[in-house]
Specification:
This protein is an all-alpha fold. Helices cover 81% and strands 0% of the residues. It has one domain. The protein is globular and about 45 Å long.
Length: 135
C-alpha cells in the first residue's frame, strides 16, 4: 500500500501539475528541485530502511517507513509551503512515538493517525490556498 500510495501521489502530481499551475504561473527552479530532491531522498531512505529493518519485524519496519515519509515532507515544504513541514513533523512524531513505545500503541492506530494527519493537512492546504503553494 505504501508503494501504491507513493506511486499514486507522484502520478497525480505529474498528471495535474500543468493544469493546476497554469493560472498560478510556472514553479520556480528551487520549487522544482526541492520536490525532486524530496522524492529522491525518500527513495534512498526507504532503501536504507528496507535493508536495516527487513528482519526487525512488521511494526518497526512499517513505522520506520512512515517516519521516512514524514521526513520527506520537510524539503517538500519549499514547494508546497510551511504547512507541509508541519505535516512532516507531525507524521515523524507519530511514527517516533510508535517506535519508542514498543507495543504500547497498536500499529493500526498509528496507521490511522498517520492517514488522518495526511488527509487533514492535505485538505487544509488545498482549502486555504485554493491549490496555490504558500510562499
Amino acid at each position: 500500500m505504501l508503494i501504491a500510495g507513493g506511486a499514486g501521489a507522484t502520478l497525480a502530481i505529474m498528471l495535474t501539475a500543468n493544469v493546476l499551475t497554469r493560472p498560478l504561473g510556472v514553479p520556480t527552479r528551487t520549487q522544482f528541485w526541492a520536490l525532486a530532491a524530496a522524492i529522491a531522498l525518500e527513495m534512498v531512505l526507504i532503501g536504507i530502511v528496507v535493508a536495516r529493518y527487513k528482519r526487525a519485524g512488521e511494526r518497526p519496519f512499517l513505522l520506520a517507513i512512515l517516519f521516512v515519509v514524514g521526513l520527506h515532507f520537510l524539503p517538500m515544504s519549499i514547494t508546497f509551503g510551511p504547512l507541509c513541514a508541519v505535516l512532516g513533523l507531525c507524521a515523524m512524531a507519530n511514527a517516533g512515538i510508535g517506535l519508542s513505545s514498543l507495543r504500547g500503541i497498536s500499529l493500526s492506530r498509528l496507521w490511522i493517525i498517520d492517514g488522518v494527519l495526511k488527509l487533514f493537512f492535505g485538505g487544509f492546504m488545498f482549502a486555504v490556498t485554493g491549490g496555490t503553494p504558500i510562499p
